[in-house]
Amino acid sequence: MSDGFAAVLAALVAVDPGEKCRLAAAIDPAADFSHADAPAADARIPGRPARPELIHPRDVPTRGLGTVAGRAALIHAVAHIEFNAINLALDAAWRFRGLPADYYRDWISVAQDEARHFAMLRARLKELGFDYGDLPAHNGLWEAAEKTAHALLDRMCCVPRVLEARGLDVTPGIIRRLTEIGDRDTVAILDVILAEEVGHVAIGTRWYRWACTREGVDPIATSQRLLAEQGMSIRPPINDAARREAGFSDEELRLIQHALDQRPERAPKPQPRRAATARPA
Description:
Elements: H1 4-13, H2 17-26, H3 68-95, H4 101-127, H5 140-147, H6 152-180, H7 184-215, H8 219-230, H9 240-245, H10 250-261
């Protein structure tokens, strides 16, 4: 039986995005993940190309969707999230040892889905005359992975159920905006991603609760504590239906809504002027 951890590591450290996707797709979920030795530190993690340039989130420029360049910027941002999500899923399978075989099968399946999502978005970027790496991006997702590398419980709480669940909340709005301007090709890709990301967050929920049971802690109280320790918060909008499908309980959704209700009111940001005409790509 092949060494599953070695196959996962090969994909995780791959620098070229296409090679990473190919290696992730080739991982056998039935490979041997039985040896539980702690992984040695590896400076090659995460493997990523020299571009895009990584900058602070507040410095990432935003553009309107009324131009091809504006739509490409949005697609590039989502592609960067999906590229990070490949590494996050692979890292979840490589870093945490001695877990049930289903755990490794789950996270390999997530990595393979994320690789497919990235490939679809990259192909769409190329149709618009751009490529992954042409625009700057930020490193927030991977920084959260580094902060939670010490414990499965922390990783499952803070990454799938907070940062990746954010995609469930904001993607419907992006789809609506792209539908309004007639970009059906990008909408078709985002429809696939949104449907499958529900399952990915559900996997995070499953293993978060499994870890809570193993450690004898309450999932809701522990989640609130970890988010406070990490300085994380959940922002509107909230996609209750998708979160419920991904395993969030009614009590969790009530607590999220209560926290949102307690947020101080902010002055609305000035809205950019919309282009007079917007044509589909």
